[in-house]
Amino acid sequence: MTIQFKQIEPKDKEVVLHLFKETAEKIHQMNVDHWQYWKNPPQEKIQWVEEGIQNKEFFFIETSNNENLGMVRIMNEDMLYWGKQNEKAKYIHSLVIKEAYNGKGLGSKVIEAIARNAQKEDTKYLRLDAVAKNTGLCRYYEKLGFKKVGEKAMPLSVNNLYEKAL
Q1: Which end of the chain is less congested by CB atoms within 10 angstroms, N or C?
Q2: What does the record list as coiled-coil region(s) (predicted)?
């Protein structure tokens, strides 16, 4: 399956918020306390989405037939979690695969596609974070070759910081 990224536009904000809400509900059913604020997002989270869309950082993940598989935010810097960094990196946030496509290896294919695109731009690292108490997600990223390089305490969680050299 070919993966492509389609820029999310301001008119798509409600679709983005709906994808977050669906994912939060799915995660809750798995008894994982992660992303539950997306069920009824506070204003700062909505603003975070709006800023990401305005900055052209949010993308729908689609097949070559324009079938929507989910979404992802890809940033050139992440001051909130990582602060100022010297090495060129791409920061992956909000990787959401729709329920119908879970368990098919799409998350790793999306990350691989982001890595290929980043390498074309002479990017040194892929970076992402995961809520530390979501041990399943942390193990998943480690299996994909990401190394834990730090922690970041946030108002709602403590997050592990991961990077992978390209």
Answers
A1: N
A2: none
CA 122 to CA 63: how far, in whole Å?
A: 26
Nearest to 111 by CA among 74, 62, 82: 74
Is-contact 110 140, C-beta < 8 A?
no
**pLDDT tens digits, one per residue of 82-98:** 999 999 999 999 999 99
Whether residue 102 is predicted with pLDDT greater than 90 in this model: the reply is: no
- Enumerate the β-bridge partners of residue 163: 127, 147
Report how far residue 85's alpha carbon sits from residue 67's, in angstroms, rounded to the nearest whole number: 36
Task: With cut-offs at 50, 70 and 90, classify the pLDDT of residue 33.
Answer: confident
16-47: buried (b, 16+ CB within 10 Å) or exposed (e) per residue? beebbebbbeebeeeebebbeebeebeeebee
The pTM of the full predicted model, rounded to 2 decimals, is: 0.93
Domain count, the chain: 1
Which domain CATH number covers 60?
3.40.630.30
